[in-house]
Write a structure and sequence with these properties.
The chain is of the alpha/beta class. The protein has a domain at 15-135 and 147-179: dinb family like domain (Four Helix Bundle (Hemerythrin (Met), subunit A), Up-down Bundle), CATH 1.20.120. It has ten helices and seven strands. It has helices at 16-35, 53-67, 70-83, 89-100, 106-125, 129-132, 149-172, 182-196, 231-238, 256-261, and strands at 5-7, 135-137, 147-148, 203-208, 213-217, 225-230, 248-251. The strands form two sheets. It has a five-stranded mixed sheet. Strands 2-3 form a two-stranded antiparallel sheet. The longest helix has 24 residues, at 149-172.
Length: 267
């Protein structure tokens, strides 16, 4: 990634063709990860509470199916609400994805996931512009804005797959391969952080390690508060996963890192 300091508010939204290319890269990497798993790896617990690697892979496959069919998405939402009334609509639908593939062999899951990648890329690249602006949830997008279908397809599903590749690597020790889409995915994560942090103090955030770079956040009306963090762990924290590390204050107000640590965005 670039060594330049990037204004996160200036990062443009991902367009359909960029997103389609990103899905091909990220999902191909995930397919290779899954194919490299040992039989014992599939039963390993992941950072997503209650999910084994096998459950997560079934979610991957279900998400691909939802991406290629709005009707399937709505159907899973409806059935999930019936079966899992104590869960949120999103969590219930995800659990229904797992249930729908509970009888598949692991070989079948990997083969189907790999075969679906071109279908997902085509669907995202040709997703109708008129449908992109349709709101589907008023509570989940950055800043409390309506979550629109186009944003869900071009950004969130891709981000979710990318983060799950990290989950698989942490659970099994089978590494995720860096892809050409990593920079785009991380840029969109920081873009959403900048929306939620729009009225916050001026920050220069330096991420290090596998995910690296420096971004400006907040109101640029004073000397920046300088903060460093492990890049992967920072993204995991934003998703609500338990981090291994804390943010480090290099210069500025002592209370700001804790405020940034508490920030969450949609994954």
């Amino acid at each position: 990634m670039s060594s330049l300091t990037i204004s996160a508010t200036d990062i443009p939204a991902t367009n359909r063709l960029e997103a389609a290319s990103g899905y091909t890269a990220v999902m191909s990497g995930l397919a290779k990860q899954l194919d490299a798993l040992s039989p014992a790896d599939w039963g390993t617990a992941t950072d997503c509470t209650g999910w084994s690697v096998r459950d997560m892979a079934a979610h991957f496959l279900g998400a691909q199916e939802d991406l290629t069919s709005i009707r399937r998405t709505l159907q899973r939402r409806r059935i999930g609400r019936q079966h899992y009334r104590r869960l949120s609509p999103l969590d219930a639908a995800n659990q229904q994805q797992i249930d729908d593939h509970s009888s598949d062999t692991t070989n079948d899951v990997v083969a189907c996931y790999l075969a679906n990648i071109p279908k997902v890329a085509r669907r995202v690249a040709t997703f109708p512009t008129l449908l992109s602006g349709v709101p589907v949830d008023k509570t989940m997008a950055p800043g409390g804005l309506p979550l629109r279908i186009g944003y869900l397809y071009a950004t969130i599903y891709l981000r979710d797959s990318w983060m799950h590749s990290i989950d698989i690597a942490r659970a099994t020790g089978v590494p995720r391969a860096s892809t050409e889409a990593d920079g785009m995915v991380v840029g969109q994560i920081l873009r959403d952080v900048s929306v939620v942090w729009s009225d916050g103090p001026h920050i220069e955030l330096e991420l290090t390690g596998e995910v690296c770079g420096t971004w400006r956040l907040g109101l640029a009306n004073s000397n920046p508060i300088r903060i460093t963090a492990n890049g992967v762990d920072f993204c995991r924290r934003l998703s609500g996963r338990l981090p291994d590390t804390k943010l480090t204050l290099v210069a500025g107000e002592q209370a700001v890192p804790a405020r940034l640590e508490a920030l969450r965005i949609l994954f």
